[in-house]
Amino acid sequence: MKLSSSPSVWVMTAEFAPSIVGGLGTVATELAKALMKQNVRVNVITQSTTHSVHLTQNKGLATVRIPASARYYNHSSSSYKPESIQQLSTRFFPRKPDVIHIHSLEFERAAILLKRKYHIPIVYTCHSLVSMEDGSSLRSIKSQASLLRHADQIIVPSYWLKKEIQKRFYSAASKTKVIPNGVRVGSNGTRVPPHRLMFVGRLIRDKGIEPLIRSISILSGQKKQIRLTVIGKASLKYQKRLKAIAKQIGVLSNIRWLGFLPHGQVQRMYSSHGAVVVPSKLESFGLVALEAMANGIPLISTRAGGLKEFVNPRNAQIITAVDSNAISQAIEAVWKNPGKTKQRLIQAKLMVKRYSWRRMAAEYKTLFLRLQRSGVRSSVKERVK
Questions:
Q1: What's the distance, Cα to Cα, between the start and end of the chain in Å?
Q2: pLDDT of 82-126, one tens digit each?
Q3: CATH placement of domain 196-355
Q4: Which residues form the Glycosyl transferase family domain (predicted)?
Q5: How many other C-beta atoms lie within 10 A of the C-beta of residue 136?
Q6: C-alpha distances in angstroms, 64 versus 26, 77, 119, 190?
Q7: Cis bond leading into 18, ω under 30°?
Q8: Which of 122, 134, 201, 345 has the fewest CB atoms within 10 Å of its CB?
Q9: Spelled out in words, what is the top-level CATH class assigned to the domain 8-182+357-384?
Q10: Please, are residues 364 and 31 in contact by the beta-carbon 8 Å criterion?
Q11: Where would I find the H helices in the chain?
Q12: Averaged pLDDT, 5-15
């Protein structure tokens, strides 16, 4: 049997442009586009923001959008009904794929059903371990464990996350591979003063948002014009807590709360800020930090988790501890050392060249081709039995 050098892939993701909430959606979208440029045939199955199923075509990329309604989605298990996904995917995409590439746990059961029925290998890009995140449900933890067990290949964006998976899921160790997230080079930098700060990310405790807010109070004594733009979504309860803290310490007027913004809009906002602050306690990768570097914006960041694989003192001002004093000291160091900051921007621009989406897509394509060959052999064996 002659194998194609252009593998066909079904991508399953709950987030896909233009409906992107966080880093997962950004990665799923940018990677799919880059794979198409590598001559990989990509069809996307994702969540719809409307109440109907519909197919969209954009520059050759076919996307089926499926609503999270009772007809297609099981709300008790927070997952799409596997039989519904099977029927819809084969209806819109009659040709079976060589590989199923899954990003989101909502499609775990559907991916496993398709693997068992049609002998299609699964590649799972694991963006984080849900068991390490605040507020994760037992169902999500079990769903991810199932996907890690059934996937033929697991891709993670950092060696740190690979080690964490190996500690918790020993059987997944031999099939886990590191392919970092990519980034697109954006603006050519900023001329905005460094007291205009920017934070981007989910508003949860692990992102270090509380000590960052408290650091603004410490720094406002030196620079009353200090401003912090906060972009990201929070639960209503936690949002009220953060604003109460800001009001209590007298910096509510220094902070601009923008909530969730589309990824494209966030990209355009980098150049209107003097520095990006990433005070995280835990990061599987740290896409915001990489985006700041790619946009030529000074980065003030911890080296937590996967961040330490590309954030270092040569290309960023390091936050040594996730507390208000350490964060304020790091921000102040950027203010006092413009020459050092300029050198770091040069090093950051050189470093991000290694993280092009083209390079990452080429690694994925090599993996898909290997699984395409092994998948055909598995199917043949199954038919013989």
A1: 19
A2: 999 999 998 999 999 999 999 999 999 999 999 999 999 999 999
A3: 3.40.50.2000
A4: 194-348
A5: 14
A6: 18, 22, 22, 39
A7: yes
A8: 134
A9: alpha beta
A10: yes
A11: 23-37, 82-92, 108-118, 138-150, 159-168, 209-220, 236-248, 263-269, 287-294, 324-336, 338-352, 357-384
A12: 92
